[in-house]
Design a protein that fits this description.
117 residues; alpha+beta; four-stranded mixed β-sheet; two-stranded antiparallel ribbon; 4 helices; 16% strand; globular
């Protein structure tokens, strides 16, 4: 499946599979380390994800996390919010956490920045 096709599917709000088990408890707070690990696992040296897709439960956890850091008035909505460099997109699912899209890291600028003194 190509990235464009996958993006269209998510925007059409498909029924997304959710792993449920009696042993799995829903998260009680936002886990920034796990999200950073997910982003890193879906990145290469040249390409990284551009979107962070969240279900309703994860959207609430992120909103609460950001409200604690910046104040509740600052995060009434996550519309046009970026988290760890990824645009946050809420999907119509009870629980969902995934990255998607592609952004190319422009490494050709890096050597000139490193040599500047």
């Amino acid at each position: 499946m190509t990235p464009k096709r996958k993006m269209k599917m998510i925007l059409k709000k498909p029924s997304l599979p959710v792993e449920t088990s009696a042993a799995v408890k829903p998260a009680q707070s936002w886990d920034a380390i796990s999200v950073a690990r997910l982003i890193r696992e879906n990145s290469t040296a040249e390409i990284s994800p551009s979107f962070l897709y969240l279900g309703r439960a994860e959207t609430k956890l992120l909103r609460d996390h950001l409200a604690e850091a910046f104040g509740a008035a600052s995060v009434m909505t996550l519309h046009e919010t970026y988290y760890m460099g990824l645009k946050v997109v809420s999907v119509d699912a009870d629980s969902y956490l995934q990255t998607g899209g592609r952004k190319i890291i422009r490494s050709e600028y890096l050597p000139s920045l490193l040599n500047a003194s």
